[in-house]
Write a structure and sequence with these properties.
Strand content of chain A: 15-25%
Largest sheet of chain A: 3 strands, mixed
Number of strands of chain A: 5
Oligomer: homodimer
Distance between the termini of chain A: 34 Å
CATH topology of the largest domain in chain A: Arc Repressor Mutant, subunit A
Helix content of chain A: 25-40%
CATH superfamily of the largest domain in chain A: Winged helix-like DNA-binding domain superfamily/Winged helix DNA-binding domain
CATH class of the largest domain in chain A: Mainly Alpha
Amino acid sequence: MNDVHHDRLHDFESAIFYCEKNGLNVTKPREEVLKAILGSKKPLGAYDILEKLAEPLNKPKPPTVYRAIDFWQSHGFIHRIESLNAYIGCDTDHHHEGSQFIICDKCGNVEEVHLCSVPAELQKKSEESGLKISHWVLELHGTCKTCQ
Amino acid sequence: MNDVHHDRLHDFESAIFYCEKNGLNVTKPREEVLKAILGSKKPLGAYDILEKLAEPLNKPKPPTVYRAIDFWQSHGFIHRIESLNAYIGCDTDHHHEGSQFIICDKCGNVEEVHLCSVPAELQKKSEESGLKISHWVLELHGTCKTCQ
DNA sequence: GGTTTTTAGGAATCGTATCACATATTGCGG
DNA sequence: CCGCAATATGTGATACGATTCCTAAAAACC
């Protein structure tokens, strides 16, 4: 567990706790995938994860990793960043249909932002258009404070 | 040119005009790629485009299509929809750093939305975090009026 | 213990995108 | 017009991302 970055340790433990409470199996692949993602400050691609797990899981194949990703994602513990094809740990209590990220294209750091709801302007637009929103993707790219 | 959907014909012509005015070459691959994208009501994947161009361009290879996509994208005439890995024509005057889409996951229709600026809530968050925004991705998924 | 459900292993394949390198075409100064 | 530089294309190979399908193991339940 000490290979999970310290400020994400709590996330790891709370995920485990959540699973225990809800009768979900925390299997070896799932555990290792979550550890890999939470252990990284930056989002990881599926094949980055695959590499990291070569040792602990004896060279797993893509489906193994994708299955675990799906599992954690479906329970809201990790998010996919569409514009990076990469995965990152959720930094709050899971299960929100939208996620928002602030992404530095220079250093690759990603910060999760939490809006409790769709911004008003958009809410309005989607109402006008009659869309019943299921989820949304919001990714701001730019240069972070330290990289400027 | 009559294979460009009628309500996108103007977009095609104004792109050509823009290129002439700015000394940009409208080559055969570029022309065909733009026509393919504007000729479709729904976003096209790169390999969809590749297929459509099999005849007019004599079975082009991926780089041919991607280069033309990059070209039009860099001049703001088409957008990439990250959560679909697909490309769609811009429906207004080009060159805005952010694009916003309303996507029906049932019928695949996409509507472009134009916010002139980043929603206030996000603007605030990105200021707090010190991000200098270069571009942003905003994609609302759900079910459109007619599909509900 | 036997059956059902859940999970994992693994080969193959598909979809998306880029690299490297050769070739062609265009634009422009002499 | 020629030759050079800049721009753009053709093409094979390869990298990266994700899924399908089928088999086998492990857990949960009776």
